[in-house]
Fold:
Amino acid sequence: MRRVVRGFWGPRKESIPELAGRWKAMLDALPALLPAAGSAPAGQPWTWTEHHGSGRPTRLRPDEADLGAALQADHDSPQTSDGPA
Structure:
């Protein structure tokens, strides 16, 4: 069964590693908050997919390194509001 969770982050004065840690904590908490969504196979985390404005979605591992890389890529993209001008 597939469920969609969409998150939006407002502007905050925090580093990418700090935000990645907060994002991971939220992802880790979602299964308990949404028990009707089912659980992952024993010992496995839920799987996450990052959907982009264009192109194919990419798999996103729920660890701070992958989350931090996704945040950095978004920050550096000229297509996002906080990317380079």
Remarks:
- The mean pLDDT is 75.
